[in-house]
Write the structure tokens for this entry.
Amino acid sequence: MKLEGIRVIDLSQFLPGPHLTMMMADHGADVIKVENPATGEPTRNIGLRKGGQSIYFRNTQRGKRSLTLNLKHEAGREILLRLAETADVLVESFRPGVVNKLGVGPDSVRQRAPRLIYCSISAFGQEGRYRDQPAHDLSVQALAGLADLARGSDGTPVIPNMPAADMLGSAMALSGILMALVRRGQTGRGDFLDISMFDALVSWTANSAVPVFGAGRAPIPTEERTMGGAALYQVYRTADDRHITLGGSEIKFAENLMQALGRPEMIELCKQPPGPAQQPVKDFLAETFAGKTQAQWVEWFRGKDICFGPVRDLAEAFADPFMAQRGMLLHDEKGMEHIGIPIKFAEEPGRVDFQAPELGEHTRHILRDLAYADEEIDALKEQGVW
């Protein structure tokens, strides 16, 4: 696998860091999850459980080894530093400044391990006016201007249905780490990455920011092409009170749809800018789609060259055989469900290790690998180091 021989120390919690280190584990990296011996990773105790573990925890921690360490203890810090000397990557997601107070910040660790790639993931980054402001995904989306784009029928911002700041932070961190690994192969030196979930969100506004840069105004969702202003990029209710989507406003799709519906005269309206000019088309489509059930429309659209999709809930989506065909729904030997690997190589594909570690399961073995004798390990346990 692509990352065999790469060792990753995972000090992160919740979603962005654990998700990216899990993806590295899926491709062969040896990921050591460092957990507080008293509490462990918080997601061990969040949400529904199955097979004796939190599903949230299993979905972000599979394939890792668990090492419990009390980093407030001097001996615990020394273990981490010794481990860093054997590692390629370290990922942490504490608030800015916390790792420095613990004595395991990037300067201290990289002094001992200059080849290490040290990645810090935080809401707003290590510098700037919001550096010390606590925030999870929703607040980051709000400050980045993204939450304002998702509005309900009453015009009020709604809670986004996906933790985009978390997941984009994960993706950007993984990209940066892989870049740094490539560069280290040329220079022999590691690096420090300051990954901000806020920055990650902003970098993905390439299309959303057009009216900001071009007209000096915020996007108006009801008038923007991909936010509700276009008739052919829209959600419509069906007769059974379900919904369908049109997802392509290119004129060729408008021509195909309007010809099929017997209303070719509306093609010209579809060529107008998104917003009020396309309202007659929206009204016509809303009335038309309300005349049949979702299932009937699925059949009607079959074989037509039109961007279309029925709105399904997540359970329906996972029940689609396509999920298994793409390897995105997997089952272990006990029949429990797992999300598959999204990065697919023709050669050396990733491989899922379905097992997520118990708290501290691998501590003794890892300490032995670091040349601690059994009596030292026992003494460290008595001292509350692990």
In short: The mean pLDDT is 96. Residues 7-203+356-382 form a domain with the Rossmann fold fold (CATH 3.40.50.10540). The chain has two domains: 7-203+356-382, 221-319.
